[in-house]
Amino acid sequence: MPQRASNKVKVYVRTRPTNHFASEVLAIGRDNKTVNLHRAPSQNIIDNKVNDWIFHFDGVFNNVNQEDIFNAVAKDVIHQTLDGYNGTIMCYGQTGAGKTHTMTGFSESYQNRGIIPRSLQYLYQEIATRQEFSYSIRIAYLEIYNDQMCDLLRTLNSQSDYQQQQQQLSIGEDSGLVYVKGLSYRLANSEEEALNLLFEGETNRAIGQHVLNKQSSRSHCIFTILIERRSAVSSTEKYTMSKLNLVDLAGSERLAKTNSEGVTKREATFINKSLSFLEQAVLNLSDKKPNSHNCRSSKLTHALKDSIGGRCNTVMIANIWPELQQLEETISTLRFASRMMCVPAEPTVNEVIDPIKAIENYKRENKLLRDELALHDSMVQRTNAAHESLSEQQLYEIENQCRRFIDGTLDDIEVKSLRQIQAVFNTMRNICRITEKDAEKKCRERYAPADNQGYDQQSGHKISGITRGANNANGLGGDLDGQNFASGVSSKDQRGAKDGSLKTARNKKQNSTTAKPPVAQANNTKAKSPSPPGVKPTGLNAPRITTTDEEQLKETSEALDGKDQRPNTPPGRSAAFEEFKQTRGSNLNRIYVENKEITATKKKQFAEFARRINQTKAELDQTRSRAEQKKNERLSMGEFLNENGETIIDEEEYELISKLQDLKGTYRTDYEQWKSLKSEITYCQNLVAQCQNRLLQEFDIWYNETYVNENNTGDVGDLASPSKIKSDYLVLDDAAERFERMQKELLLTDLDSMPFRQAQMKTNRRHVFDAATAQGPWRQAPAATVTSANRTSYFELNYDDEQESLPSIFTNGNQQKSMVR
Ligand SMILES: Nc1ncnc2c1ncn2[C@@H]1O[C@H](COP(=O)(O)OP(=O)(O)OP(=O)(O)O)[C@@H](O)[C@H]1O
C-alpha cells in the first residue's frame, strides 16, 4: 500500500481484548494497517446492502499493551507540543470499547496507566533535558455532560454549585484560538503536581449507570495541557504557546440496543447528538469546507474547533470491540475513523510576542543607538550636542526664547538637537493657541460680559496647559490641553480655585470630626501653611492633607470611637492555641479529640485481642503436644481397627483432638478480629494526624489574621513556635507515616513511577480526609474507603489449616508491632 501523505490527521484502531473475537467477520491485515469486514447477507429478504469493507488506517493494534500504544501513537505529538505545535489525541468508539482505558488507564495501576499519565511523565522528563528553555505548564480538565460544561479542577459540593459553574463557563475565540472562559488553568511545576490534578479531576468525573458497562462514563472529557516555552539563554520577546488536548469522548451507542431509560436515555441522546455534530464537522473539514458547518452547534465541536486537523497535530484512536454482537457499532466507528483520515492537517508553531519583553528590548536597542550616537558626536567633535530628553529648565528656557523671539527682543533661537527643534515648534503652537484664546476672551469681554466666569476658568486651564504640554513630551508633543497632568505651572486663578475646593473639603472633614477637635484642628493648621519660599507653586507643591495627617485623623477617630480594643502585645502561641480551640477551632478540636479517643479505645481492644490470641496459641501448642504424645503411645501399642478398617482411639485422645479443633476455631476468629482492628487503627491514626494538621493550619491562619496582620508591634520572637505546639500533638506510633515511608523506600527501586505513586497517595489521603470531615467524628472504619495503597501494606497472612502457620502476636502496651510467623 502506498504511504499516506503526512499532512492528514493520523488514525489508529485499537481492539479491546476479548475471548470471543469475531474472526469470521473481522480480519486484521498482515501489515497491521487494514481491517477487513464481512457481514453475512440477510437470508429472507433481498439484501442490496454493502456487506464487505476494507478500511485502511495508519495502524491497527490488536492485543497491544499501553506502553506500545503510547510510543506508537502519542509520543511524537507530545514531543512536538514541546516545540510549540498544538496537539490533539482523541479516543472515539462505542461504549465499553476501551477509550478511557486507552486515555487514562487504571489510576491504581502504574503499569496500566494510559496516555494522559504517560504524556505527563514524558513531558516533564523531556523538559528536564532541555536546559536552553524554560517551560511553564498549566492544566485544565473540562467535562461536557449533556452539552453542559463543568470544570473538573474545581470542587463541586452540590447541585447548585454545578449549575452555577455551568453558567460561568463559556467558550470564546481569539484570533482563531478557542478557549473556555472561566475554566481554571492550574500551574503544575512537576509531574507529581500534574498527576494530582489529573486524579482530582478523575474523581469529579460524572459516572453514569449503563447496562452495557456499569462503569461507563457518560461525558466527554478534555484534559488540556498548556505549554509555554521561553528561551532561557536569550532575552527574545518571542515565545511559543502550545496546547495539547487529550480527549476521551463519551461512547457512541444505539439507544434501542442499550435499553436506556430516564436519565441514561437523556445522557445517551446528548452524547449521540454531540457525536453526530462532530461527525458533521469532520465531514466538512475533510471536504475542505471549514466554514460551511457551524461548530457552535454543540459545546464539544465548539471546544474542539481549533483542535481537529488544520494547524494542529491530530491523532485519533478508534476503539473497537471485535465481537459479533458489536458488529454494527464497529462498522460505524471504522467509517467515522476513515472519514477522519481525510481531514487535512498542517501543523504550525504557535509563536507569540511578549509586549513587555518587546518594550524592554526596544529600550535596550534605543540605549545602544544613543551610545553609538554619542560616540559618533565625539568623533566629529560635536561636543555640545544633546540627545537626552529635555529637562524642565531647558523647556522653560526654550519657552522664554520663543516669547522673546515673538516679541522681537531675540533674533535667533539657539538649537543644537532635533529634540530642541521639536520643543520650539510645540511651544510656538501653544503660544499661538493661547493668543487665539486671549483674543477670543477679549472679544467676549467686550460683547458678552455675562460669559466671563466660565471663560476665565477655561482660559486658566489652557494657560496651565502650555508648560504642561511641553513638559510632558519634552518637546515632542503630548497632551496640549493639559487635562491629565498633576504637575506643571498652574495659573493663579486655578490655584485659587484649588485652594478654595480644598478648604471646602477640609471644612467638611472638620464638621464631621467635631467630636475630636484637638488633633483635627492641629492638622488643619498644618495643612493651611503656605509653600516654603523659593519653591515654584506647582500642582504637586500645592498644600493638601498629607497621608500622615489622614492616618492621624483616622487613628484619633478610631481611638475615640473605642474601636481598637486589641492588646498591644499578642498572646503567646500556646495561649492563643488554647483560645483558638475554645473558639473558632472548637469543632475541629472536638473531632480531633473524639478521633483520638476512638483510636485509643481501638488500641486497647487490639492489645486485648493480641493477649487472648497468644493465650490460645500457648494452649493450642500444649494440647497439640499432648495429642502427639498420646498418638505415639497408641502407635507403640499397635493400632486397633474396627470392622470398617478405621482407627480406634481412646476417649482422652478424642477429647484432645476435639479441644485442638475448638482452639483453632477460637484462634481464627480472634485473629480475624485482631487483623481488622489493625487496619481500623491505621485508618484512625491517619484521621487523627490529618485532623491535627488541619487544626494547626487553621490555627496559623487564625493567629495571623487576629494578631500578626493587625500591625501589632508586640515582640513575637519569644512566642512558642508552631512546631512546639505540633510536638505537643505528636501522635506516637503513626502507622500512616510509617507506611508512607516504607512505600517511598520501596519506590526508590523504580524512580520513574515515584510521581505517579505520590500523586496517587495524596489523592487517596485527600479523599479519606474529605470524607471524614464531611461525616464528623469517625465511628466505624468503612472498608470501601480504605485505599488500595493502604491495603497493600498489611501483611498478607495466609493461615490455612496447617497449625504451623498460625502466628503468635507480640505486643507492647498499646503499641502495635509486626507479627512474627
Ligand atoms: N486494551 C485493554 N486491555 C485491558 N482491558 C481493557 C482494554 N480495553 C478495555 N478494557 C476494559 O474494558 C472495560 C471498558 O473499558 P473503558 O471503560 O475504557 O471503555 P470506554 O470505551 O471508555 O467506555 P465508555 O464510553 O462507556 O466510557 C474496562 O473494564 C477496561 O478495563
From TrEMBL:
UniProt biased composition (Basic and acidic residues): 492-501, 551-566
Q: Output the Gene Ontology cellular-component terms.
A: microtubule
Q: Where is the signal peptide?
A: none
Protein origin, superkingdom: Eukaryota
Please note every region of biased composition (Polar residues).
510-528
Stretches for region Disordered: 448-576
The yes or no answer to whether the keyword Ligase is present is no
Instruction: Name the major location.
Output: cytoplasm
Q: Which Gene3D superfamilies match?
A: Kinesin motor domain
Which Pfam family name is an example for this entry? Kinesin
**Annotated localization:** Cytoplasm, Cytoskeleton
Q: Does the keyword Transmembrane apply?
A: no
Q: Which GO terms describe its molecular function?
A: ATP binding; microtubule binding; microtubule motor activity
UniProt xrefs under SMART domains: KISc (SM00129)
Recite the UniProt keywords alphabetically: ATP-binding, Coiled coil, Cytoplasm, Cytoskeleton, Microtubule, Motor protein, Nucleotide-binding, Phosphoprotein
Q: Which family does it belong to?
A: Belongs to the TRAFAC class myosin-kinesin ATPase superfamily. Kinesin family.
What's this protein's name?
Kinesin-like protein
From what organism does this protein derive?
Answer: Adineta ricciae
Upper lineage: Eukaryota, Metazoa, Spiralia, Gnathifera, Rotifera
